[in-house]
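Pinned message: reference record for Cytochrome P450
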Amino acid sequence: MQSPTVSRIAHAAPDGVPLSDKEIFGFVCFLFIGGLDTVFATMNNIWLYLAQNPAKLEEIHARPDDIDKIVEELLRRWSVTFSGRVLDKDYEMRGVQMKKGDRVTFILPACNFDPDVFPNPKEVDFDRPRKTILAFTVGVHSCMGAHLARLEVKIGLQEWLKRIPKFAVKPGTEIEYRPGGVIGPEQLPLVW
Ligand code: HEM
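Predicted structure (tokens):
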């Protein structure tokens, strides 16, 4: 089956000018890469948490109808990446001077830990009132794959838990993280 998204990229003609082969290749690569490490890291973080918190796992089993808000809370608690930009003009924020051309990084996960918005933010609470989370950022460059990512986590959890209702981290495993743009355990050996 032809992918509608890739097909749209291949046939796109902004302002009537078709994209070049290089641009098409770039956009398609970006689309695939955007959905690889992010989903991998998100799932590793969530599965690690559930392996270490059997009471939360039980709660998920007990509340199948709440799966969407469960996924949203897990995505809030484990937002894995950030936004980077290059300033197009001089800017001042809270007394900090920034210059045109400076590179800035927005630590999105920190926004999901703002206690004024999410009280007791480190706690996983599936009954939090629904609020915008910044896992996928917001605005014109927000994640194109956010809906797919939410579905992947949701279906991943549903199908996994049907077959493997209880699991744990393999004894003796040391969980390792690698510095980089996407944060999650490098490997997660599980036993059941
Ligand atoms: C849990 C998984 C994911 C997370 C946490 C995530 C997070 C993000 C974030 C924070 C951005 C904004 C980056 C910025 O502002 O510089 C972004 C952009 C993007 N993401 Fe995702 N993403 C995920 C999954 C996916 C998937 C599954 C796809 C595609 C199949 C995807 C494709 C993209 C693309 C194409 C952009 C660029 C959008 C633009 O610049 O207009 N992402 N993502």
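Pinned by admin. Summary line: The mean pLDDT is 94.
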